[in-house]
Structure formats: C-alpha cells, structure tokens
Amino acid sequence: MRIAVNAMPSSGYGGITYLRNILPVLEQSEDDHVWFVYAQTETLAKIAFPAHKIVFREIPSSGIVGRLIAEQFRLPALMRRDRIDLVYTANNPDLFLAPRPRVIAIRYTEPFVYRSFYNSFSKRVRCAALYALTKLSLRTSDHVVCVSEYARRIAGADRPALAGKTSIVHHGLGRPFRPGGRRPDWAPEEYLFTSAKMIGYSNLIALVEAYAVCRSAGLDDPLFIAGGPHDRNYESELKQRVRELGLEQYVTFLGYISAESMAAGMANAKVFVFGSLLEACPNTLLEALGCGAATVASDTAPNREVAGEAVAWCDGRNPASIAAAILRTARNETYRRLLKARALVQSSQYSWRKTADNLIAVLERVRQTADSTVWAGSEPPTVELSKAGPST
Question: Is 279 exposed, middle or buried (0-12, 13-18, 19+ CB in 10 A)?
C-alpha cells in the first residue's frame, strides 16, 4: 500500500516530536507499505532522514494562507500523481480534495478548549478557525485516529454518528527517556524539576505559588523549570510572580534543553512536577514515567489515562494541593521509591513500536474496508474473482 502522510499541519502542536519518533519505526517495519511524507521545507529539515520505505516530498509554501492553498489544492494533485492508496493526516484537518480513503489523527485538542486558556484575540481567532475545520474534518474523513480517549471525547468523536469510525492509538515512549544516567551539569544533588511550555495551560504560575508554600513549610530544595518560549506575555507574568514571591534565588529558568538533558533531569530529580491542565496525550508525563521519576501531576482525564496510579495526584488549579503532593513525595523516601517502581511498570506499556504497529493495523483495516465497500451491492467484474469469494 502506498500511504501518504500529510505532515503539513505538523510544524506545531507537538507534531514534529510525533513524526520524529514514529517515522524511523515505520521505516523499519516488516511490511510492503511505502510511505510518502509531504511537508513544508522547515518541517522536512527537522524530520527527514535517509530512508528506503519513506519518500519525503517538499511542499513549499509561505504564510498561513499559502500553506492552506498548498495543502488543500496542490497536495491532493501530487498525491494522485504518486498513486496514493490511503491518506493519513497526522494532525486534525482533513484534505477534502485528496484521494480516499482518508484518515485523520486528533492529536491537537487546544481548539476545543481554547476559551479557557487564551485571552489573546489573535489566538482565539486562530483556534476558532481550527475548531471549525476540525469539526468538518471529523465528518468528511473515512476514519479518525485519536491519541487518547480524552481526545476522542473532547472532539466529539465518541458520538454515535462517529464512534464506529474511530480508533485510539496512544503515543509511544523511547530513548533517551529511561532510568539512570548521570545527573545533569545544571542540577545540584537534590532538586525539584518541571518541564513545560511557557503557556497558560502549563500551569506554571500555580506551581511556583505551590513552591512558595513548600518553602514556607521548610522544603529547601531548589526548583528548576525547563521550557522554551511560547507565549511571551505568559512567561513575563510567570517571572513577575516569582519575583513577587521572593523566589528569584531558588527558581532557575533553564529555557530549552535537549531531550537527553531533560531525561537526566527527570531521572535524578527528587520530585518531578507535571502541572499541565491540557495535554491530549501527555508526552512529558510519559517520558517522566519512562525515566522512573517520582512524579506529582495534575489530576486530569488524559493524565489519568496515561499514568494510572503511578504518580502522586493533585488538583492542578490549587497551589495548596500541589504543595501537599510535593511535600509528601519529597519528605517520604519510601513513598518516592514506590512511585518510581510504579512509574517503570506503567511506562512499560508504551513504545513507539507498539504505536506504529497499532497505526499500521488501523490503516490496513481502513483500506480493506474501503476495498470491500467498492464491491458492495455488485458482483466483481471477473468470473475468477467471483469464484474466489468476496474481495478482502
């Protein structure tokens, strides 16, 4: 089967991370499928690698309007020239003019909850447009792959009209997120650690307020925050709150750090805190589990779905609740060891190999169903096929 991967919407929303992890595994799969990955120039620069089963196609475009034109008009024509058998869009919007069958992945859930996290008019307009486009895509696609039960529910793909054409394929977990490793150069012997986008739903302001409570209760371990710039206004508010609380000398902003450094930070932290209130399939939480971190996390549906009872849960909107969970974990070595052991058991359920195998199985089933539908209500065109029985 010649499978198209529409990576045009994947320059953001975590799509780069997803493609970087799953494409090398698809390249190594023992099947006869050929994958055509269509992406913008800057996306290809981040995900392409020497491959035999994967063909990378550059789709030049400029700006949002230019990308939409390239994606919705030029790309379908190119897919037909490449004789594509099935189209898989790795992030939300369907390609309405592309060949069928078409499968979309609901991985990006911000458009469904943006009113709770964004005050910016431009961000609200953008999310509203993506919301409308995603809702339309749910109806027009032949199948929907949801990254979690939470994503399935919040997108409305669990409604009776859509439930029959949806599947859940969780994200995987792989290197360098594993236990052990040397403590990173930036870390002291004992410390608290978190890694998150500088954006409202990361909940970092509530975290630093909880950290102030912890220090008042006698916890002296410094807090390290890793995360690249995303929302400059929110980042400014966060740093201002740190100053107001008198925490400047105890809180260190690391900025963007490598995956290796983040894994080492998770594995060696006394407590890793994941306070995010919005993650369709929380990669960072999965990674912390894989590192065997003693983790405190916001009690949200997607977090629960991934972590089960392998973390210390708290009310992420309540600094006192976050602080209580941090203090319990930091002060009780036996409890930390229990969380670390549970984390490793829980993380063993996830791998990018399993994710890739599940995705391939879904795509093969969709293609098989599409082929069967072609013959529905009519006889195959040859006596030989008819004698052989129904097409599969």
Answer: buried
| Sign of the alpha-carbon dihedral angle for 55, 366, 350, 298 | positive
Among all chains, which residue has been given the structure tokens 């994710």? 355
Say how far apart CA 351 and CA 286 lie, in whole Å: 10
3-state helix, strand, coil split of the chain in percent (to 5) is 50, 15, 35
Structure tokens at 247: 């925490």
The CATH label, of 3.40.630.30, 3.20.20.70, 3.40.50.2000, 3.40.1170.10, for the domain at 192-347 is 3.40.50.2000
CA distances from 58 to 4, 99, 194, 221, 340 (A): 13, 19, 36, 48, 43
- β-strand 312-314 against 54-58: which pairing, if any? unpaired
- Is 1.20.120.550 the CATH classification of the domain at 2-172+352-388? no
Q: What are the sequence ranges of the domains in the chain?
A: 2-172+352-388, 192-347
pTM of the full structure = 0.86
Query: What is the rounded average pLDDT for all residues in the chain?
Result: 89
Instruction: Find out whether the peptide bond into 176 is cis, omega within 30 degrees of 0.
Output: yes
**pLDDT tens digits, 256-288:** 999 999 999 999 999 999 999 988 788 899 999
